[in-house]
Amino acid sequence: MQKKEFEELLDQVAGALMLADPDDATSWEELVPLCANVRQFLAANAMPGCVAVVDQVLAALSAGGSSDAAVAGSLLQWTEQVVDLLQQVAQGRISDAEAASAPVASGAHGQGAEPSLPYVEGDELSPLEEHEPPAQETMPLPDETSPAVSRPKDALAAINHELLQREELAGRYLSFFLDQEEYGIEIVRVQEIIRMTEITRIPRAPDFIRGLINLRGQVVAVIDLRARFGLPFIEPTEHTCIIVVNIELKTGHAAMGLVVDAVSEVLQIGADQIESADTLSANLDSHYLLGMAIVAEKVIILLDVDSVLAIVDGIGGEAAGGAV
């Protein structure tokens, strides 16, 4: 099995799922041919258990959308879980037979059955399950009581620390564009992606705080990342969108919107593709960065969402807890 090709096919499906809207069946028509590509790969690699699971997804998606957003959302949620299951197969964590017998493979989806994970009515995107990376085996360090080995010990400790950091950062990221530069944020922090909508200004707020939006009864503060990073203002285009992320504030857990030029794709980034933020240009404040990734000969800047939005703690915390 060609692991890289398998993961790329699954990432294409995951990207289409992120842009799917339960209220608009036409927004997830692309899922059927993408899932069919996955099935073709599985069949060619003699994985009958996974083929059977994908066949159920294709049958449900091909049946068309539903006028009930909750039912359609449950179907998308179940498809998302199947993609996550197949990711575990691609990474060698479970076998083809184990995937076929997993609870999510039973076909419990939005067509009248409850999904195996909770689904909140109206969500365009639910967080994908986060998996712990395999433990990084490190070399034993020399005895610190020996002065003759103190310098090699420090060097090994630094190397092991950097390797551990890379392992922690490895995973799936949503990439997006700002001023023709590509950035990435951890997929587990993304709640949903919505089209550009009417934003209510906040009096005397900094320029980079665009204002507030009403997201299904929840008041969410919206930040213009262009302005936050000192980039020139441009008028919104058909590609401009708002990424709603989950962050940790002093006041607790909150949702906040990020205005970006365009969403790109979902990427699986390995530890060997990540470089330290210290290697980036001195013009960039590394305080806002997790690091940078080299993917297909392009550089993707990985953002630390909490640090980027820490300055709006007061406004974001109050807004996120409100309702209209």
Please tell me the total number of domains: 2
Say which CATH homologous superfamily of the largest domain is assigned: CheA-289, Domain 4
What would the principal axes of the Cα set say about the shape? globular
Cα Rg = 22 Å
Mean pLDDT: 74
Structural class determined from secondary elements: alpha+beta
Strand content: 15-25%
Largest sheet: 6 strands, mixed
Tally of separate helices: 9
Provide the CATH top-level class of the largest domain. Mainly Beta
Number of strands: 11
CATH topology of the largest domain: OB fold (Dihydrolipoamide Acetyltransferase, E2P)
In helices, the fraction of residues equals 25-40%
Give the SSE string: HHHHHHEEEEEHEEEEEEHH
Based on the structure given, which CATH architecture of the largest domain is correct? Beta Barrel
Q: Please list the strands of the largest sheet in the order they lie side by side.
A: 8-1-2-11-10-9
C-alpha end-to-end distance: 51 Å
Low-confidence stretches: 108-153, 315-324
Structure description:
The protein folds into two domains: 3-106; 171-320, CheA-289, Domain 4 (OB fold (Dihydrolipoamide Acetyltransferase, E2P)). Mean pLDDT is 74; it is low at 108-153 and 315-324. A hairpin with a 2-residue loop joins strand 4 (209-215) and strand 5. The strands form two sheets. It has a six-stranded mixed sheet with strand order 8-1-2-11-10-9. The protein starts with a helix and ends with a helix. It contains nine helices and eleven strands. Helix 1 (3-18) packs antiparallel against helix 2 (31-44) and helix 3 runs antiparallel to helix 4. With 324 residues, it is α+β, with helices and mostly antiparallel strands. The longest helix is centred in the first third of the chain and has 22 residues, at 69-90.
